Amino acid sequence: MKNFLTSTVAVSALALMLGMTSARTEDAVDPNAKPGGAITITYKDDVATLDPAIGYDWQNWSMIKSLFDGLMDYEPGTTNLRPDLAESYE
Fold first, then answer.
1. Does any domain span residue 7?
2. N or C: which end of the chain has fewer CB within 10 A?
């Protein structure tokens, strides 16, 4: 019974991985796509403030982060700081 369960899990995992790789090939870039345009982002509730000093919840912060640049920012996917508007830092 244990071997059957192990085999079933292994085959299921393999089938899932193969299915995911075949789905990935469908993510092709549209050759007729044009640069530019507009994107509309909606929120469930109104944004309460655009003041970076007091906008701490996710809804406010995501809008503030989209509108304003900071002196420093994080390198994407890391905790390493890099200058954004700052020219240098010590």
1. no
2. C
pTM recorded for the entire structure: 0.42
Q: Residues 6 or more apart from 31 whose CB is under 8 A from it?
A: none
**What is the separation of C-alpha 47 from the centre of its chain, rounded to a whole number of angstroms?**
20
Give 62-88 pLDDT, tens digit per residue. 888 888 888 998 999 999 999 999 998
State the total domains in the chain: 1
Look at residue 18 and tell me if it is in a domain.
no
Q: Are 47 and 60 in contact (CB under 8 A)?
A: yes
Mark out the alpha helices in 1-90 (DSSP H runs): 2-24, 58-67
Beta-bridge partners for 74: 81
